[in-house]
Amino acid sequence: MAYLSEPVRVGDVLGDTFGFLRAQWRPLLLISAPSLLAAVALAVVQKSLGLQEKPELVFTSITGSLASSVSLITLAIAHLCFVGTLFFTLERQRGHQTGVAEALRMGVRLFLPMLGVRFLVYFLSIMAAVLLYVPGLMVYTMLWVADAAYVAERPGIRAALSRSRNLTRGSRWRVFLLMLMVFVAAALASGLQTAAQRISEWAGPFTSVFAGMLWAILVPVLAATLYRHLKTAREGDEAADIAAVF
């Protein structure tokens, strides 16, 4: 396998990411629609049960069981839609006319193995962070495209992590910068949610849902695009495939 001659360019990755979002926003919204509806349902349940004002109610038997059940279902649907969005992005960037239904079916099919990949990424990053914060960030940076590598190549759960580590070698500062941009965007969204909460008691939860929707689309599209750039830098030019979707 050839080693890349230079790191990926942050501007190119961002440009292709937002270009893809502009070109494919309709199907992306449809793929993420179940996650949005689940998040709205969760916000309504939490508001109806008074969990926004009194979070300690989650520890009561009936209220806690109901809230926990809805939360778990919401997380499961969000994970399914994340995988579907990742698959859709990778396939469309290859020039394949993948549809919304096929993307959601793939989300169901890859639900459990992708859960394993994401668990290992977070577990290893947290374990490294227990030693020192910086090693945790380094591990997370190395493994940031493990999700995309698994969906694109199906190499196995552990092999997907190794694949991400190999692909990011030589570009990890650039990958870290992209990751930092995502964290900053998340912080800004959290600040917007807090401000909206002060305006209206319902504005906060629904602002959170909207921000979560953007996050659910942006992160997998960015991860898929970064994976394609990293793979191209090491193994060949796929720029024509990516450009074909715009």
UniProtKB/TrEMBL annotation:
The chain crosses the membrane at residues 28-46, 66-90, 110-131, 173-196, 202-227. Keywords: Membrane, Transmembrane, Transmembrane helix. InterPro entries: DUF975. It comes from the Bacteria. This is Glycerophosphoryl diester phosphodiesterase membrane domain-containing protein. It comes from Sandaracinobacter neustonicus.
